[in-house]
Specification:
Length: 195
């Protein structure tokens, strides 16, 4: 079974032995596998040694390290997410990048915070599906307090599943879950810069 894995769905497909096998064969080598006493397996990779002439032909590859992109920024973000762990991690990492983050655990709390900080919120990031007031309904009620601040919806559902609820809205973007924090930071910086 070349693609057998003990990992759960969407958690990878194993150790990539099929890829390693293909690379070894292309190089004229082979892989030997044997059982290890006490359990497990040992994989030994054999590749032919390169001769002097072959080494002289290979030009050294110059690796240019890319400078890390500056993902820091400034602004006040209202972050609405009913999953405490997701909200906590994302909010902490955004704070580390210089943003002020106001956290809300549901739509009702977010609406109160939006009213309390009317005109002072630079961006709202909200889950779409939440108990009580969902993301699109929250936006419709909170828009008077948000002004033209950009809004980013995050969801495990496809954007098309709820885009019809946002027909009259502008300045709305979408980021699928699971959240990649680097992508989130990049998108936040883009959206705030554009605004």
């Amino acid at each position: 079974e070349p693609f057998f894995t003990t990992k759960a769905v969407n958690e990878g497909t194993g150790m990539g032995l099929a890829t390693v096998y293909g690379i070894a064969q292309q190089a004229g080598g082979h892989i030997a596998v044997s059982n290890v006493e006490g359990g497990g397996a040992a994989f030994r990779l054999f590749l032919p040694a390169a001769g002097e002439a072959e080494l002289a032909e290979v030009q050294p590859v110059e690796v240019k390290a890319k400078a890390p992109r500056d993902l820091s920024g400034a602004g006040r973000i209202l972050f609405v997410e009913d999953e405490d762990a997701v909200r906590g991690i994302a909010a902490r990492l955004l704070r580390q990048r210089g943003y002020e983050v106001i956290e809300a655990a549901d739509g009702e709390e977010a609406l109160m915070l939006a009213e309390e900080h009317a005109g002072q919120i630079d961006m709202m990031i909200s889950d779409v599906i939440m108990p009580g007031l969902d993301g699109p309904s929250l936006l419709k009620k909170a828009r008077p307090y948000l002004g033209d601040a950009p809004v980013m919806f995050i969801s495990g559902y496809a954007e098309s599943d709820f885009s019809d609820l946002l027909q009259d809205e502008t300045g709305v973007s979408f980021l699928p879950k699971p959240l990649d924090i680097k992508t989130l930071a990049e998108r936040v910086k883009q959206e705030l810069h554009a605004a």
